[in-house]
Design a protein that fits this description.
The structure is a single chain. With 339 residues, the protein is an alpha/beta fold. It has helices spanning 6-14, 47-50, 52-65, 74-77, 87-96, 125-142, 161-184, 198-201, 210-220, 231-241, 245-252, 276-282, 298-303, 322-338, and strands at 35-39, 69-73, 80-81, 84-85, 103-107, 146-150, 188-192, 225-230, 256-261, 311-314. The strands form two sheets. It has an eight-stranded parallel beta barrel with strand order 1-2-5-6-7-8-9-10, surrounded by six helices. Strand 3 and strand 4 (84-85) form a beta hairpin. Helix 6 (125-142) runs parallel beside helix 7 (161-184). Bound molecules: zinc ion (ZN). Zinc ion binds next to loops.
Amino acid sequence: MTCPAPERLRSLSKQLSTQTSPDGVPTGLALLNKIGLTVNVWSGKQLLRSDFDEMRSFLDEAAAAGFGYAELGGCGLGVVMAGQVQRSRLAALRDSLADCPLRLTLHSAWFSSGRTGNLLDATSASVQYQGLRADLEVAAAIGAEVLVYHAGVLANRYSDGAELAAGMATEREQLRDLADEAGARGIMIAVENRAPTPAVLTRRSYGMRLDLVAEQVREIDHPQVSMCLDVGHAYLAASYLQYDYLAAVKAVAPLVGHLHFHDNFGRMAKQPEADAYELELLGEGDLHLPPGWGTIPLAEVLAVPYPREPAVIIEMRHARHYAEALETTRGMLTAPIRA
Ligand SMILES: [Zn+2]
């Protein structure tokens, strides 16, 4: 493993106060100690379903390697069942995370933030609201700082514009309510942009457009709600909807309170039913590759100033390459200093 030596990191940290752009917005260096990794069922290993102890040793290893954060995937935890927190599972999760050296965030489960609809979908919004409340309870119990929520989708793609507008209004209202509760528990809700995958393409949505996610967050207008910029989803969406990727990222940067960082080739899956292995072979779809393995201009994305200083969560498959991913990401964050 070739992480920067501790002295180099310390000297980089010391430069934090001076590394700001002329208008005082922090540069990438401010994010250097906020790099995290996800631990979930998509990491290539069933870490969570089998054993929280195994998850804990992975988190300890990640902390020793230099990560500052971990994002737990709500789906893999098996703590929320039918929209309710399962008490003994939560107790086991809490025990396993006692004195965890990493700061934590939580990705909401698909139940509340899902493939089939969520707060946008009036036919199921109330059930899914309940699911998100349960996620919030889990986040509070483990001391998570952020709860990630996927921007909603309607039940089908033929819904008209009025339904979409009504759905977005419901979503805003319910996220505002949840945000009051989140705020009381010191948690920020981050609304994540979506990729052009079957879950989104087969339904009506707004989440593929960064400008619309930003508008939704702006209209929610709550201090505990920000945007989760998923750089890989945005790259695929920009290619699908033909917008300028970096210009769109720059435009929403002031609202970004959380970052999902990973790589892909910006190519839509022509055969979405192909399994993950086949899609990797083809270089298509939302691959969640380690940074540097695809073609996203990730260094440029990290060179954009993010005034809210989001955690940079590496949300990748091939979990065993986490040390390489950390080194690559650090290299991108510190590159402007070397230049
Ligand atoms: Zn993501």
